Amino acid sequence: MENLHNPDHNKRTMLTGMFSDRDSTERAYEILSERGYTKDEINLIMSDDTRKKHYSDKDDHSELGNKAAETAGTGSAIGGTIGAIVGVIAALGTSLVIPGLGLIIAGPLAAGLAGAGAGGITGGLIGALVGSGIPEERAKVYESGIKDGRVVLGVHTRNDEDAEYFEREWKSNRGENIYR
Hints:
By secondary structure, this protein is of the alpha+beta class. 44% of the residues lie in helices and 17% in strands. The protein has helices at residues 22-34, 48-54, 63-72, 84-90, 108-116, 124-131, 136-147, 160-172; strands at residues 14-19, 42-47, 95-98, 103-106, 151-156, 176-179. This is General stress protein.
């Protein structure tokens, strides 16, 4: 089936990686952001439990929360919010909470799922991941990681140079199961 929104969508590489803590997740997101990728291009998937536990900006007095607040003035935090990821999730319209699955999905994948309506997510998380171009075996690895509290980031890179750069940076940043 052809993607009508973006004709070259299927030709571009989808780079995905999984991160096990807030620090590495936010750093991986910043790496994408520094190269000009926007929240509308970056897919982010986590469980609602993980979001509540680690990405809620309520009373965030952790060292990372303070660090994020400090860097907000330097422009590296998205939109000046506490932590880039919290900002992405807080940006209404770009994130989708899937009640039956207990998932938070942000980015173009969220838009695609929202457009597909409830019927589009009957396949669950694996169906959503496979629908976004991730092979089924990899989707199964990510699904169990998300259930264990990890966060999956994915982006259709603009070129091979970006893909190689992100892959290298993510690996040096404790990223797991990085594929393209």
